[in-house]
Write a structure and sequence with these properties.
The complex is a heterodimer of chains A (about 475) and B (about 260).
Chain A: H1 2-15, E1 29-31, H2 38-47, H3 52-67, E2 90-92, H4 106-115, H5 119-124, E3 129-135, E4 138-142, H6 145-150, E5 154-157, H7 158-164, H8 166-172, H9 183-191, E6 196-200, E7 209-214, E8 226-231, E9 236-244, E10 252-254, E11 257-262, E12 267-275, E13 287-297, E14 303-310, E15 315-318, E16 321-324, E17 330-339, E18 344-347, E19 350-353, E20 359-368, E21 373-382, E22 390-399, E23 405-414, E24 420-429, H10 432-439, H11 445-456, H12 458-461, H13 466-481
Parallel strand pairs in A: 3-7, 6-8, 7-9, 8-11, 9-12, 10-13, 11-13, 12-14, 13-15, 13-16, 14-17, 15-18, 16-19, 17-20, 18-21, 19-21, 20-22, 21-23, 22-24
Antiparallel strand pairs in A: 1-2, 3-4, 5-6
Helix pairs in contact in A: 1-13, 2-3, 3-9, 7-8, 10-11, 11-13
Chain B: H1 2-5, E1 12-23, E2 26-37, E3 41-45, H2 52-60, E4 65-74, E5 77-78, H3 84-90, E6 92-95, E7 102-106, H4 107-122, H5 129-142, H6 147-151, E8 153-154, H7 160-174, E9 178-182, H8 190-201, E10 209-214, H9 218-222, E11 227-232, E12 235-240, H10 243-251, H11 254-260
Helix pairs in contact in B: 7-8
The chains are: A alpha/beta (about 475), B alpha/beta (about 260).
GO biological process, one term (chain A): iron-sulfur cluster assembly
Protein name (chain A): FeS assembly protein SufB
Pfam family, one (chain A): SUFBD_core
Amino acid sequence: MSATADTLRHVEEFTSRAYKHGFVTEICMDMAPKGLDESTVRFISNKKEEPDWLLEKRLQALNYWRLMKEPNWAKITHPPIDYNGLYYYAAPLDKPKLNSLKEVSPELLVTYEKLGIPLKEQELLAGVVAVDAVFDSVSVATTYKKELEKCGIVFCSISEAVRNHSELTRRYLGSVVPSMDNFFACLNSAVFTDGSFVYIPKGVRCPIELSTYFRINAQNTGQFERTLIIADEGSYVSYLEGCTAPQRDENQLHAAVVELIALDNAEIKYSTVQNWYPGDENGNGGIYNFVTKRGICRGKYAKISWTQVETGSAITWKYPSCILQGDGSVGEFYSVAITNNLQQADTGTKMIHLGKDTKSTIVSKGISAGNSNNTYRGLVRAGRRADRARNFTQCDSLLIGDKCGAHTVPYIESKNPSSRIEHEATASKISEDQLFYCTSRGLSAENAVGLIVNGFCKEVMKELPMEFAIEAQKLVAISLEGSVG
Amino acid sequence: MLVDLIEECNMTLLEIENIHAEVDGRPILRGINLSIEAGRIHAIMGPNGSGKSTLTYVLTGRESCKVTQGSISFCGRDLLSMEPDERAIAGLFLAMQYPVELPGVSGLTFLREAVNARRKVAGEELVDSMEFLKMVRSKANSLGVSDEMLKRSVNVGFSGGEKKRNEILQMAMLEPRFCILDETDSGLDIDALKVVSDGVNSLRSSDRSMLVITHYQRLLDYIEPDLVHVLAHGRIQKTGGKELALQLEQRGYINFIETAA
C-alpha cells in the first residue's frame, strides 16, 4: 500500500509545479475609475468612440444586471466578488494605432516571447496564421489584414467593427447571447472592452486560421472580451483563441462573451486553448473565468464546432453551446478540461436541436489532479420540430490521486419521439502499471504522466488545428507536470 | 551510444547478492544470489509463485516490491539506489509478461519518447517523428510489426503475439545491455514463438546479457541459455546447463518444492 502512496506522492509532485507564465509586464496603464456605475459605462463607450445605439445597449444591460443575481447552480465555490472593487477599463498608454509589429512596444514583444507566443515567427511564416493580438483591452497589432480583405473577409477588433461595419454589428451583436441571458453575459454586455470581429462573405473559404491571443495584465482589471463571428452562406472559417496570464495574488474576473452565427451551409470551427493563471497550490490567486460562448446554426446544413483545451483558471464556468436551428445542421463539442491543486471547473455544452435532421456530437475529457474538482455539465435538448435529431455524447474522466473529484451532470430533454440521444460515460485512474511500463522504458515519471494524459485526450486533440495541437499537448503536459516540452 | 554512457563494465554485468524482497509485507525472495557475465544468457525456471516475476520487478525497480536485504550491482553501479527510468537508461530492459495498454499513445510516439529520453541524457540531438519512423521500420519489419501497428495505441487491442513482438521491438530499438524476458513465450503459438525468438537471437552479442524467465523448456530450444537456474520458494535451488531444463520438463518441479519445504 505504501507503494501506491509513493506513486501518488510522485504524481502530486509533478502536478504541482509552479506556473510557468507567472510574470508581469510593466507598462503604463490608462484606466477607468474603479467600480461599476453608469459613468464607467459611459467612460468605456466614450473611449471607444462608440455610436449611441451601443451606448444605449450597454446602459440597458447595466440596468438589467443590477437586478440579476450571480448563478449558484454550478459546482464551484469562491469568496464574494466585489464588483465595485474592480477596474473595468485599462489600455496601454502608448496608444496603439499600429500597422506592423515593428511599432509594438518592445516590452510587449518580450512578454509574448516569454509566453512562447510566436508572433514574430508568425509574421515570418507568412500566410500561416493571422493574429489579432489582444493586450488587455485594446488590440495592439493586426496582421494579415490586407490579405484577408482581398477575399472580402473582415477580421478586426470589435470596436473597429462597430465603427466600420455598423450594419452587421447592429444586427448580430447580442443576437445569440442577449444581454439578459445570464448574470455574466449581462455584465459583459454593459462593460465589454474589446475582442474580435470576423465576417466571412458568401461562399468564401477563409484561407488561413484566424487566431487571437489574449493576455490579462493589469492588476485588478476585469477582462471583458466580446467576440462576434459571422459566416455567411457557404463560407468556412477556423478561429483559434489562446490565452495565458501573469501570476497575481488577487483573483481576477474574466467574463467573456462569444457569439457565432452560421448561415446556410456555412461552417465555423472555434478552437480554444486556455491557460490563465490557475492560482497557487493553496488556492490563492487565479483567474475566475465566467464565459458565455454560444453559436447558432441559423441556416440549413450549417455546422459549428467547438474545441477547447482548458488547463488554467482558478474557476472555469463555461458551456460553449450550439443552437441547431437550420434543418440538417450540425453541432460539435470537443473538450479537454484539466484541474489541479484547488482549481474548479464546471464546464460542458448545450446542444439545442430545433431543426429537422440535426446532429450533435459531444466528446468531453476531464482530468482531475490534486484537490481539484472537475464537473461536466451538459444539456441535450430535442425540440418538438426536431424530427430525427441525433446526439452522441461521451464523457470520460481521469483521476490522478485520491483527493480530487470528477462529476458528470448530463441533462437530456426530448420533446420529439423520433429523436435519438446517446450518452456514454467512463471514469478511470492512471494506473501504477501504466506509469511503471513507461518508466521502465526510460521515461521520467513526469514525462509518463504527460504521455498518458495526452493519450487520454487524443480524440479531442486531433480536432485542433495543427498549429495549435502541438502547443496544446505541451500545455497539457505543463499543467500536470511543470516542465515537459 | 550506451557504451559511451556507461563506463566499461567488468566481465560481470549483473551481480545479485543475497536479495530478500517482499510484496505487500509478504516475503517472496529469500536470499537470491546470481552473477551474470557480459554476453551470457541465463534462464530461470520455476513453478508458479516461486518469485520469478518479483525478481524482475526488483531488478527494474517497481515500487510494489520492497527489498529488505541484499545488494545488486549493475555495471558496477548500485542498482537499488536508482529509479526505474535511470535503470532503463543505464541499459536494463524488461520484456513484460503482460504488456500494459496505453490508450491514445501510438507505439511510434511511445518508442520515440523512450529513445529520446536516452538521447537527452547522452546530450544527443532528439529525433523527430518522420526520421524516427525510418529508424524503426527495418527492425519492425523483421519482427512482423507493420506501420499500421506502430500507429495504433500501445498494446490496445493487440493479440498476445502482437504484444510480445512489440516488446521485442522495443528491446531492439533501445539496445539494452541487459535484457530480462519475463515469460515471453506465454500466449504464443509456434510461429509467433519462432519470430520472437529470432528477434531475441539477433540481439545476442558479446556485450549483451539476458535473463530468460520461463515455465517451459520449449522456449529454450529457440533461445539457448548458457546456464539454467531453478527458482523455488524465493531461492535458487539448483543451477545447471541446458540439460537441466530437459530434466525439469520430464520430472516437473515437484522435487524442488519438496526439498524447499
